[in-house]
Amino acid sequence: MAPIRVLHGQPNPEELAAVLAVVSARAAAGAAAAPEQSRADVWRDRAALVRRMPHPGPNAWRTSAWAGR
Questions:
Q1: E strand or H helix at 62
Q2: How far apart are CA 23 and CA 39, in angstroms?
Q3: What is the C-alpha to C-alpha distance for residues 60 and 67, in angstroms, rounded to an integer?
Q4: How many CB atoms lie within 10 A of CB 19?
C-alpha cells in the first residue's frame, strides 16, 4: 500500500488508526472482489484493439494522428 500523509488537521492516534483500518479493509475487499483474468481472456478482448478517440483539449490535434493509444 502506498504511504498515507495527513495534509490538513491534527488527527489523534485513535482517529488515524480508524481511518487506516477503513482504508485497509476497503483495499482488501476490492482486491478480493476483482476477478482474475487469464492470459487468454486478455488476448481475446477485442475492445482493447479498438482505438479510443482523443479527448478535446490542448494538443488534441497531435494525438489524433497517433497510431495507438
A1: helix 60-63
A2: 30
A3: 14
A4: 13
> What pLDDT band is residue 67 in, cutting at 50, 70 and 90?
low
CB 46 within 8 A of CB 23: no
- Whether 7 has a pLDDT exceeding 70, the answer reads yes
| Summary mean pLDDT of the chain | 77
Burial 21-49 (b: 16+ CB within 10 A, else e): eeeeeeeeeeeeeeeeeeeeeeeeeeeee
Distance CA 64, CA 9 (A): 44
Distance CA(53)–CA(64), nearest Å, equals 7
Question: pLDDT per residue over 20-53, tens digit each?
Answer: 999 889 888 877 766 666 777 777 777 777 766 6
